[in-house]
Amino acid sequence: MSDHYQLIQQCIDRAVAAEQSRGRFRRALHDTLPNLHRSIHLPQRDAPLHITCFVIRYIQAIPSWMQRLDEMCHAGGLDFHPLRELILHSFSQVPERQPYEHGLGSILDEAYLAHRAMEEINDMLHPLCGTPLLPMDPMVANLVVRELLGEKLACQLDDLANILLQRFEPAELDPERLVSMILYKQRYDDAPGEWPDFASQLQIELRTPSLSRQIDLSH
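-> structure tokens emitted (219 positions)
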């Protein structure tokens, strides 16, 4: 892992250690979960634990996913530098003094920004490459984290991700570079043709409104 992503990894490791020591994020979820959108379906048993485990995995995925996307974009001649530097800067702003006071909640907005930017880049390049560049589909996971952050903050982060994407121009991707990107991606493919849902790995799903009404008519 490059130095850039090692710094992000260190910040994540501190936040996870803080949660393991204090459990503040998990305790706070007892007040948050009742307010989640009713389409978000969680396991009935110990939902705060499931969400906490999901958030840890969501955050821990960032360094490897970003480095993968960075290297593929480099192979395609695309400039990933602005995104990498902004995400690195946002994580580096998390205070290092008294690190056990700064847990998962303190970096969840940085994590959401990173995942949303990667999702948008993947959506932009998917039609050109004919294959998703990320190892898993993050859409449902991002929607769940959006609920945890709140609409106002999530919208601000979405706007910031869109500003970043304005500087990311794949239109000039020539055929040779495109082939290089696809070949580079194949180095990562453990299961070619599969694109699993990241959230469903921990039994977190979205139900359609019609299905929700069939299951629960009290809301």
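The beta strands are 40-41, 205-206.
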